Amino acid sequence: MKIFYAVQATGNGHISRAMELLPHLEKLGTVDIFLSGSNSTLAIDAPVKYRSQGLSLFYKCDGGLDYWKIMRSFSPLQLRKEVQQLPVEKYDLVLNDFEYITAAACAKKGIPSINFGHQASFMSDQTPRPEHKNRIGEWVLKNYAKATDYAGLHFEKYDDFIFTPVIKQAILDAEPKDENYITVYLPSYCEPQLTAAFAPLQESRFQIFSRESSTTRESGNIRFIPVDKQLFNKSLVNCSGIITGGGFETPAEALHLGKKILTIPIRGQYEQQCNAAALERLGIDALQKLEELTPDFFYHWINGKQSLRLDYSHTVRELMEYLCATINSPAEKHPLPLASNLAGIEE
Question: What is the CATH T-level fold of the domain 169-303, as seen in this structure?
C-alpha cells in the first residue's frame, strides 16, 4: 500500500504528531510525506517527498496574528499550480492533517481522503466552542481541508469519530516530577513582552521556550531556551505547571502528565479559542491575553486547585484500528488484515 501523508507545518504540533504516528503507518505500507507551510520551529525527522510554502501563519509580538506577513506569503497562482501537480491519484490512501493543497487536489481529482487530526474533530457540533461562535472561524474549520472521511483528535471523545490525543512516546515513558519552575511556551509573544510579564514574579522560576532564542541564557528568574523537542520534553516532565497558548498537543501532553495548565489562546485564531473552551470545561484556567496575568492571579493559579491527570496511552492503537476499518470499508484495492498490521503497536 502507498500512503500519502500531508503534514501541516504552520505549527509544531502537527509535526510532533506525524513523527509519533509514522512508524505505525509504515507497518501498513510505504509512506510519502508532504510538508506544507514554513513557520514551524521543529525539524521533521523523516524523509520528505514533497514540500510547499502552503498557507502559513505568522505572529506579531503581542499575542496576535501578523495578517500582513500572512498575506505577503500568500501566492494564489502557486497554490493553484501545486493543486494541479500534486500526485494524490498515485496513492492508495491519502491522510490529510488539515492541509489545503492536498484537500483541493483530492477534490479536483475525485480521490478519497481522510482528514485526520485535531481540526477534524470540529466537524462535530458536539466539540466545545466558546460562548460566542465565530462564523468565519467555523467555516474555515469545516471547509479548509474537506475530505471523504474524518478521524478527529481532542481532549475528550466528544463524538464517535473523535479520539483522545496522540502523545509522544517520550512523554508516555516519562515519570513526571516537580522541580519548582514553570514552563512557558507562548510563540505569539516576543521576549520583551515575556520578560515584562514574568520578571516581576520573583518568587517563581520560569523556563521560557522562545522562537527568538538560538542558545539558552539566564535573565533573573527567567531561563530563555530555544524551541527544541528534547529540551521541551524535559522541561514539561519536570515542571510545576505550564503556561501555553491554546494549541492542542502541548496541553494534551500536560494533561497526560498531570501538570497544572494555564492557557492563553492566540488572538484571532478561532481554533485556539475553541480549545480554551474545552479546557475550561475540564476546570482549567484560561486568559484572553498575557497582560491579564497579574501576580495575584498567577499565585492563585499555581498555589490553588489541584491539577488534572488524564490517561492518553491507548490512543494510537484505537486510532489505527479506526483508520484500518475506514480503509477496508466497503472494499479497497489493498485490504488490511488488522491483527497482523497492528500486532506491533503497544497497548
Answer: Rossmann fold (3.40.50)
